[in-house]
Design brief:
The complex is a heterodimer of chains A (110) and B (205).
Chain A: H1 2-22, E1 27-37, E2 41-46, E3 51-55, E4 61-64, E5 67-69, E6 75-76, E7 79-87, E8 90-98, E9 107-108
Parallel strand pairs in A: 4-8
Antiparallel strand pairs in A: 1-2, 1-7, 2-3, 4-5, 6-9, 7-8
Chain B: H1 2-29, H2 39-52, H3 55-58, H4 68-81, H5 83-86, H6 95-99, H7 110-113, H8 117-126, H9 145-156, H10 162-169, H11 176-189, E1 201-204
Helix pairs in contact in B: 4-9, 8-9
The chains are: A alpha+beta (110), B mainly alpha (205).
Chain lengths: 110, 205
């Protein structure tokens, strides 16, 4: 009886951990500052200091205050919110939301 | 008489085998709303839906003239009431729409666009039994203006512009959490201080 209970608890823990880590297909929003950006990816340092890297693609939408923008408008050091979708091991960036303007001293990196 | 008996026995045997196979499949696979309806099931369902609309209703013409104001009202109505399942673009690619059995249809496709105005109105007002489509009509209410306006909007779906879609997104129903999150993002992008504890990372289903 005891071993059954332990087994079931372990199974539950493994199942919950699996679903929590995967989040396949779910959207995540990451708020933070751009650490690096190139043609293929963007790295953002979130408010907790954690660095999150997302993969950019032709489907990635860039919006500055709801108006269309481009990757070239994103500057290192700028505040952004990225909307990422977990697809297997990669975090695909669906949207990059930008504020009214880049902060002073922010680099423009292509 | 003897041949007839043999034929009936053979038919009964075939039916019994079919039931046994179906039962075995059910035991093995279970029942899931994630499955796609079979072609035969979809065909029968479409025929039944067609028959469920009275002839007079099927032939009813839209009495509301279309125009920019009518489309704007219907667009807002659709974004608020219908988009959770059908999506703002009417293609049914939403979590709820894809989880229904049958799945929410692509309303830009000929299967919907070839329905008459009266049929679309009947579906909005009366729903479709054994599907996720509810009846939006109210008992005792005879004002069909809003539903006729929606019929115009459904006809307009294949021509929706990105600007219309963006406007609809702002009109979709939001939970308190989503509203707070949007406000937090707005404040953050405006340069205000946002506490990390409030969540610098969030996820949506």
């Amino acid at each position: 009886m005891r071993s059954k209970l332990v087994g079931m608890t372990l199974l539950t823990v493994v199942a919950l951990a699996g679903s929590a880590l995967a989040h396949e297909g779910h959207e995540h929003k990451v708020m933070g500052k751009v650490v690096a950006i190139d043609e293929k990816s963007i790295q953002v340092e979130d408010l907790d200091g954690k660095k999150v890297t997302g993969v950019l693609s032709a489907e990635t939408k860039y919006l500055r205050e709801e108006a269309p923008a481009a990757r070239a408008d994103v500057k290192v050091g700028e505040r952004v919110v990225i909307v990422v979708v977990q697809e297997r091991e990669i975090q695909k960036v669906k949207e990059v939301l930008l504020g009214a303007g880049a902060p002073e001293g922010a680099e423009h990196k292509h | 008489m003897r041949n007839l008996c043999r034929l009936l026995i053979a038919l009964a045997a075939v039916a019994a085998v079919a039931v046994a196979v179906a039962f075995y499949g059910l035991i093995q696979h279970g029942v899931s709303a994630r499955d796609e309806p079979t072609t035969a099931e979809a065909f029968v369902a479409r025929r039944l839906r067609h028959l469920a609309v009275p002839r007079a209703g099927r032939e009813a013409a839209n009495p509301v003239p279309s125009g920019p104001e009518v489309l704007a009202r219907a667009r807002a109505h659709f974004a608020d009431h219908c988009a959770s399942c059908h999506g703002n673009d009417g293609r049914g690619r939403t979590k709820m729409g894809q989880g229904l059995y049958p799945k929410a249809p692509d309303m830009t496709s000929p299967e919907t666009q070839n329905l008459s105005d009266g049929e679309i109105l009947h579906i909005i007002e009366n729903g479709v039994r054994l599907t996720g489509m509810p009846a939006w009509g109210e008992a005792g209410s005879h004002d069909l203006t809003e539903s006729w306006e929606l019929v115009h909007f459904i006809r307009h779906l294949p021509k929706l512009t990105p600007e219309e879609l963006a406007q609809m997104e702002s009109l979709n129903p939001k939970s308190r959490k989503e509203f707070d999150e949007e406000e937090q993002i707005r404040r953050f992008l405006a340069g205000e201080d946002v506490k990390p504890s409030a969540g610098s990372e969030s996820h949506d289903h």
